[in-house]
Amino acid sequence: MSGQSYSLKDLASKVNGDIVGDPNLIIRSIATLQNASPGCISFLSNSKYKKFLSNTSASAVIVNRENAVELQAAGIVVDNPYAAYAVISALFNTYPNPYIGNEINYFVHSTSSVDESVIIGPNVYVGPNCKIEKNTIIHANSSLVKNVHIGRNSIIHPNAVLGSDGFGYAPNKNGYTKIEQLGRLIIGSNVEIGAGCTIDRGAIDDTEIHDGVKLDNQVHVAHNVILGQDSAIAASCAIAGSTTIGKNFQMGGLSGVLGHLDIVDNVMVGAHTLITKSISKSGNYVGIMPAQDHKDWAKSSIFIKRRKI
Questions:
Q1: In terms of C-beta density within 10 A (0-12 exposed, 13-18 middle, 19 or more buried), how is residue 14 classed?
Q2: Residues with catalytic function
Q3: Taxonomically, which superkingdom (predicted)?
Q4: Whole-angstrom distance, CA of residue 247 vs CA of residue 212
Q5: What is the pLDDT of residue 289?
Q6: Beta bridge pairs of residue 114
């Protein structure tokens, strides 16, 4: 609990919502419908949880207009309850800057620039030729290795490695000769990079992560990838080098994209799917098969092999 409290009227004004019930009702925290108690505000955005609406202990619930008629408590009525919840959640953030007192416990190379409004956590390394713009947060133990540019209002979560060497080697009779990675990593504004992500800088051209991109934890983006605006990628995904991806790309967990491909705008990739060819038509692509008993899987795999595409 944050220690903050707001009237229902205060919260409704933040999300341009209509009030149901007492506008002076005091809200002290946020909770799920099934785990709420008096003083909490909750929200309903997924029909799966509608069954909890009639008997929740929440003092108020954020709902859409369709579900407002079933409210048993006070509420805030909006078009998009999940987006409204996101806005209100920021009001209950107890530690918006968790690093107060550790402001000097990081390293910035002399060739790099960091805006004075940037928040940097302990044990952060900012290497040569890096630039971090206004109101960005670099969380603890992250590294900007070299030639990294991060735009405004972005968030880099702990243990991210940005601008690392791409996987580039020239085979020869004695093994491999390393190819020096001379490009940059350009990260736009309003980007969020999850914990433990690795994004390589370019070999010659740049790696580009465009405005509004959101990466979950443990995502790897290889050198020279271009990832389009407002794309969102779930945990443990990987994109191989020199692939260009359009806007609004969405990718489920444990998925991958091979290198040197071109993918158009507005593509959705289901969990555990491997993209092996360029995609020229927007849509939803999936290659996952649900878990089965081993004997059933063996039968299914034979059918798949024999099936003519």
A1: middle
A2: 223
A3: Bacteria
A4: 10
A5: 74
A6: 132
- Shared domain check, 88 and 169: no
pLDDT for 1: 43
Of 47, 68, 92, the one marking the end of a domain is 92
Output the six-digit token pair for 147: 């030639």
* Residue 107, both tokens: 């390293």
What total of structural domains would you count in the chain?
2
Residue for token pair 């409204």? 84
Is 164 in the same domain as 69? no
The closest of 228, 193, 230, 190 to 208, measured between CA atoms, is 228
Residues of the chain with pLDDT under 50: 1, 309
18 and 111 part of one domain = no
Query: pLDDT digit string (tens) for 74-107?
Result: 999 999 999 999 999 999 998 888 888 877 899 9
The encoded tokens of residue 56 equal: 């929740």
CA gap 215, 154 in Å, rounded: 12
- For residue 2, the model assigns a pLDDT of 52
pLDDT of 96 reads 84
C-alpha triplet 35, 39, 43: angle, nearest 5°: 55
